[in-house]
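Morning!

This is the sequence you dropped in the shared folder:
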Amino acid sequence: MAKNPMSQIWTLVRRPDVILAGAVLVFGLLAAGLGLGSVPRTWVLAGTAVFTIAGLTYGHALTPQVRDRSRRRALHATVILLVIFIVGSAGYANWWDPSKAPPAVGEYILMTDDPTQCLAAHGYPGGPKMPGDPGLSGICGGQAHRFTCRAVLKDGEIWLRIEFNRYWWFPESALRPAAGVSQTVLPTCKN
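The structure's back. Tokens below.
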């Protein structure tokens, strides 16, 4: 006599390993949607997958029909998966978390964001503009440029140095730090 398919499904769903895996999966999905908004979904889903598989292996080890050798293997797999989760979590928190990246230093843009507004380069701090040089005609609004150091003239005017196949100078008064960039002062140029 064939069993009712619904009773077979219900028997499968009532197993401890399936219940534990389902609980972990629901917890992981809730964490992805609610509590871990700043953590990339890839990391949340990877952690949820590891926990779900660990729940399945642990639940399998708890079932009474499992032989001792299979139970040991399942428990070893669970421990290994939990160690992978712990190491992965620590690695993310210490090395791979994008919010811990150091802020860029020295990125400036023109005071205007208009890309048609450009500032001509100077050959040295306080010097004349360099018209028509093939290496660099200037910098334009709307783009961030990384400056390497600064020079302070006797009158207190500050100039920033950038390198495009040679050193070029721009007055700091015409520039502002790019959004999200550290306000750390650039080092003084050595030469």
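Headline: The mean pLDDT is 78.

More detail when I'm at my desk.
O.
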